[in-house]
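Render this sequence as a predicted structure.
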Amino acid sequence: MKKFINKITHTAKSTVTRVKTAAANSMSAVLAFNRRAVCGNAGEGYIDTAVKVLIAVVLGALVLAGLYAILNDTVMPTVTQKITEMFSYNG
């Protein structure tokens, strides 16, 4: 009977130790991740972000100018002609 009680006690203590170790490892991993996230010095600065935004704005303006040129020279005269024909019906 004493062996049985000792075995149960040992199993309970080892289970508690495993749970504590797993919790400590999990907490350690979370803290390490937070430390890396907060103190991340990967080189992403204000200048890099400003250059990215500037490139995006310039490319957007070029695309908009291209679409405007295509619509004014090619599409708008055809649309204007079709609308004029549609409303000048002498039936």
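Summary. The chain has two domains: 1-41, 44-91. Residues 54 and 60 are 10 Å apart (CA to CA).
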